[in-house]
Amino acid sequence: MRDLIWLIIVILIIGWLVGFFGFGESVGYLIHVLLVLAIIGILYRLAVGRRP
């Protein structure tokens, strides 16, 4: 499950980068929504951490 969360985070960040540099303003706020989702995923992963 942990690897799946990291995979989703990486895909969202890569999608944000491609959208931001590839399409710029034409895509609009969708790019920023992807970035926010990636940040939420990272924060969730840090909050959950490792459970014994």
Report on this model:
The protein is mainly alpha-helical. The protein has one domain (2-48). It has two helices and no strands. The protein has helices spanning 2-23, 30-48. The longest helix is centred in the N-terminal third of the chain and has 22 residues, at 2-23. It is elongated and about 40 Å long. The model has no long low-confidence stretch (mean pLDDT 75).
Ends: how far apart?
15 Å
What can be said about the biggest beta sheet? none
Give the percentage of residues in beta strands. Answer: under 5%
Outline: elongated
Summed up, the domain count is 1
User: What structural category do the secondary elements indicate?
Assistant: mainly alpha
Helix content: over 70%
Mean pLDDT: 75
The number of E-state strands comes to 0
Order of helices and strands: HH
Low-confidence stretches: none
**Count of runs of 4 or more consecutive helical residues:** 2
* Computed CA radius of gyration, to the nearest angstrom: 13 Å
Quick recap:
The protein has 52 residues and is mostly helical. The mean pLDDT is 75.
Task: Using brief descriptors, characterize the structure shown.
52 residues; 2 helices; single chain; elongated; mainly alpha; 79% helix
Topology:
Elements lengths: L1 H22 L6 H19 L4
Helix pairs in contact: 1-2
